[in-house]
Specification:
The strands form three sheets. A four-stranded parallel beta sheet has the order 1-2-3-4. Helix content is 39%, strand content 14%. The chain has one domain: Metal-dependent hydrolases (TIM Barrel), CATH 3.20.20.140. The radius of gyration is 18 Å and the shape is globular. It starts with a strand and ends with a helix. It has 302 residues and is α/β, with parallel strands linked by helices. Bound molecules: zinc ion (2 copies). The site of one zinc ion has 5 residues, from loops.
Length: 302
């Protein structure tokens, strides 16, 4: 099996280290053959989005995050939109420079925010990127109180996550689902509702033939004591037992935020987790391009 990784951030996201070239060199050094550069998607009109989010802000952490994002027009969550072309230019140059050593693909990790679906579609349609992955971090507004990885998730929150992920996958804009178990960080009992949400997400992905990602980000945070067992916050063992039953395709994602995140120990750890859960690990998947119908006239595509 080839070593691949389609989930690579850079400093441009505002919470990662390493520029495009440093990340690529680190991936080459550990023997990655196919590399997807995949920062948090820069969003146009992001300040407007943030202003619309103001009535939903709850708590000082959300407010501080929103103010910071507004001032910088992007970070600490995502690349500022004005850097998009510069980033893509550098990637195109690296594709040529390193073509004998590694295959580089251009992608973004994007939230299932309906207001941006047209924009995502355009990114794919104009071949600015090769693929998008769904990293559904937020409910409607990109602020901490709407974060699906927050500490206290309610039943309502996890069903919202489930509904939004299902809808987003159906757009065919997203080639795989990153950290599908993010919602379990703050939902500690794997009760009937958590099981239902898990099964629905796994079955929807299976039906659409969209892989799920085992994400190293949670593994790097180590094991946590929860209800008398030591588990990763994600990948969550209970989630992946169900994914194994459903028979989902599974891709390993370093979610690299630093060149040092590319290391064999982490690769082996992810692979062991997958094998322990009898998961079907793949090293290749189709780059989905979205439901183009409504754009066909505009672009005259046949
Ligand atoms: Zn993510
Ligand atoms: Zn990520």
């Amino acid at each position: 099996m080839k070593k691949v990784n389609y989930h690579t951030h850079t400093y441009r996201c505002g919470h990662a280290n390493g520029n495009e070239e440093e990340m690529i060199q680190a991936a080459i050094n550990m023997g990655i053959e196919d590399l997807g550069m995949c920062g948090h998607v820069p969003l146009p009109h992001y300040r407007k989005h943030l202003i619309y989010s103001i009535p939903s802000v709850r708590g000082i952490r959300s407010l501080a995050g929103l103010v910071k994002a507004f001032i910088k027009n992007g970070p600490s969550m995502r690349m500022p939109y004005k850097q998009l072309e510069d980033h893509l230019d550098i990637l195109r140059n690296c594709q040529k420079k390193y073509e004998d050593q590694i295959n580089i693909y251009k992608g973004f990790e994007a939230e299932g925010l309906e207001e941006y679906y047209d924009y995502y579609q355009t990114l794919l349609y104009e071949h600015k990127v090769d693929y998008l992955i769904l990293g559904h971090h937020f409910h409607k507004h990109c602020i901490h109180s709407h974060y699906y990885g927050k500490e206290k998730m309610t039943k309502k929150d996890i069903y919202l996550y489930c509904n939004e992920v299902e809808k987003a996958l159906e757009t065919q804009l997203f080639s795989y689902l990153a950290h599908p178990d993010l919602f379990l960080i703050g939902y500690s009992d794997f009760d009937l509702d958590a099981q239902t949400v898990t099964r629905r997400i796994c079955e929807k992905a299976k039906e659409l033939n969209i892989p799920l990602e085992i994400n190293a980000g949670g593994m790097r945070r180590g094991l946590r004591k929860r209800n008398h067992e030591d588990i990763y916050l994600y990948p969550n063992t209970h989630f992946w037992k169900i994914a194994s039953e459903v028979g989902n395709d599974v891709i390993l994602g370093f979610d690299a935020h630093d060149p040092s995140d590319f290391n064999d120990a982490m690769y082996q750890q992810m692979m062991k987790f997958a094998q322990d859960h009898e998961l079907n690990v793949i090293d290749h998947f189709e780059f989905l391009q979205g439901n183009f119908e409504k754009y066909q006239a505009e672009y005259d595509i046949r």
